[in-house]
């Protein structure tokens, strides 16, 4: 049985459905015969999927959208996000706290053996260096508790995009076992490198031209949105039924190309 046959007739909710990776993921799911509910602040043009408005910075908007989700979801694919040029507080809300809240609210509506896929980034590759701090933030269970933690603790606002992608990876891994044992739902991350979307230039600003250019050189160029959509759909499907609690790096080999470099640094 191929993956299209596995997906046929299943229902998925996809955030960030209006553009970029989210739009490419919706297209793949629809092509495979799945039903799709796209969530975004903008209704996708010429979309065959159903649409729900959601503002991931607003808990009330998240709750309203979650209430409208059907009770037979095969998966929630958290693809929406804002780039690092956004204010740090917006990054905190949209890329982390809002994503968490939507996932928590949607979890009871995901069927047994269903899936949650969170799109992080290779910008969060240093999550192990800040593991203790990210676990503390992950322990703040609610949106409001997370805001209080961020008010009471120091965190690097100058690199907020990367820091919250680290936090998302840690939250996903920290909760994967509970999701699987308590709800029979698998949760994984996908961490792309640079992707050819309209906001790529904003990443050059927030992450630095040198870092982005180095990643592009190592990988041979920017990925297309569909290059990232393919592994997202795989992790969302029953074809990956034994994959849980992973951070799946999809960067054209850029990270792997740094191994010798890291070894030299470690020896020095």
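Q: What amino acid sequence fits the structure above?
A:
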């Amino acid at each position: 049985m191929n993956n299209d046959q596995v997906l046929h007739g299943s229902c998925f909710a996809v955030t960030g459905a209006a553009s970029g990776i989210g739009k490419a993921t919706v297209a793949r799911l629809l092509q495979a015969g799945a039903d799709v509910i796209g969530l975004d602040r903008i209704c996708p043009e010429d979309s065959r999927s159903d649409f729900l408005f959601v503002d991931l910075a607003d808990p009330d908007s998240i709750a309203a959208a979650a209430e409208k989700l059907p009770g037979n979801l095969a998966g929630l694919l958290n693809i929406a996000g804002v780039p690092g040029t956004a204010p740090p507080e917006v990054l905190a809300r949209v890329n982390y706290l809002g994503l968490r809240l939507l996932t928590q609210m949607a979890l009871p509506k995901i069927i047994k053996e269903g899936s949650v896929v969170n799109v992080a980034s290779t910008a969060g590759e240093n999550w192990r260096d800040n593991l203790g701090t990210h676990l503390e933030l992950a322990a703040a269970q609610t949106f409001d508790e997370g805001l209080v933690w961020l008010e009471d603790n120091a965190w690097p606002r100058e690199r907020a995009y990367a820091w919250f992608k680290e936090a998302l990876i840690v939250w996903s891994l920290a909760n994967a076992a509970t999701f699987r044992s308590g709800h029979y739902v698998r949760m994984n991350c996908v961490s792309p490198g640079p992707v050819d979307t309209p906001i790529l230039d904003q990443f050059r600003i927030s992450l630095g031209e040198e870092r982005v250019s180095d990643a592009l050189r190592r990988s041979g160029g920017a990925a297309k949105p569909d290059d990232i959509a393919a592994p997202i759909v795989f992790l969302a499907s029953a074809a990956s039924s034994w994959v849980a609690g992973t951070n799946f790096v999809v960067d054209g080999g850029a990270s792997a190309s740094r191994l010798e470099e890291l070894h030299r640094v470690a020896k020095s």
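Q: And what stands out in the fold?
A: Residues 160-183 form the longest helix (24 residues).
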